[in-house]
Design brief:
By secondary structure, the chain is an alpha+beta fold. Helices cover about 25% and strands about 25% of the residues. It has 6 helices and 13 strands. The strands form 5 sheets. Strands 6-12-11-9 form a 4-stranded mixed β-sheet. The longest helix has 16 residues. The C terminus is likely disordered. One of its GO terms (molecular function) is structural constituent of ribosome. One of its GO terms (cellular component) is ribonucleoprotein complex.
């Protein structure tokens, strides 16, 4: 009788085991109330309070560490070939291992692909700053009544108004001089170049606005979404270059970009 019952229970457990999803999870617990120390040969009955436990760690819910990988290709916004980067596990397998863009950072791979790293390659954080600068459309506000000639410090002030800090030496103006007031060039674009760390050069699109100081609010004197309007170059020879510059950022987040520090 006992054997028949045992056989029935065993078969029922085996049938139900196929419907159970097994997970490698571990719960690390500790007693809320530690029992007193007893002798090695003695035996002590635990009380009810000794069966209360506190959860120390749940390994399944623990955030997995990032994987160190060596890039075998130049990946935008991540790094250059030979760089060692840390990437989340799911993203590492899906976007880097399967595509062949990176390998695990073993000593052999670090030595193998580290040789391919170019000394003149642009660091990833520099690439991100240059990309953001090239997509920024700078409003340059000049006087509508008094005569003026565009100089570097005018552009520096315009850049400072959009939280880009630089020195006059970083700014390269067009070869031809821009003077005013001249309403024929109002709300038209011109191209400048910024040099970062005396090494990295990027183009930036600027738009000239001539505003009278009698305006109640200077910020309302021109369309704040001017970057969505068509490009009209002050100098016709720059029209094609201005169109080749990446489209400006739709939204500019806060923060300060420091050039040539």
């Amino acid at each position: 009788m006992f054997r028949n019952v045992q056989t029935i229970i065993t078969r029922a457990v085996q049938r139900s085991a196929g419907n159970v999803e097994q997970k490698r999870t571990t719960f690390i617990l500790r007693r809320k109330n530690e029992p007193d120390v007893t002798k090695q040969t003695a035996w002590r009955k635990l009380k009810k309070k000794h069966y209360y436990y506190l959860l120390e760690e749940h390994t399944h819910a623990k955030k997995q560490p990032n994987i160190e990988m060596v890039l075998v290709k130049n990946v935008e916004n991540v790094g250059n070939i030979g760089d060692i980067v840390k990437i989340p596990q799911l993203k590492a397998y899906e976007y880097f291992i399967l595509t062949g863009a990176a390998v695990f950072a073993t000593p052999e791979n670090v030595k193998k692909f580290g040789v391919l790293k170019k000394e003149d390659s642009i660091p990833i954080h520099i690439q991100q700053i240059l990309k953001k600068l090239s997509k920024t459309h700078v409003p340059v506000i000049m006087h509508k009544e008094n005569p003026w000639t565009l100089e570097r410090w005018h552009v520096r002030v315009a850049l400072r108004n959009i939280n880009v800090m630089c020195t006059d030496e970083c700014i390269e103006l067009p070869k031809e001089q821009i003077s005013g007031p001249n309403m024929d060039i109002n709300e038209k674009d011109f191209l400048i170049y910024l040099t970062m760390n005396d090494k990295y050069r990027t183009p930036m699109r600027c738009r000239l606005f001539q505003i009278s100081p009698n305006e109640v609010n200077v910020n309302l004197a021109y369309n704040p979404k001017f970057y969505m309007e068509p490009i009209n170059a002050i100098f016709p020879e720059e029209q094609k270059l201005l169109e080749e510059v990446p489209l400006p950022l739709v939204e500019r987040k806060g923060g300060i970009v420091i050039l040539n520090d």
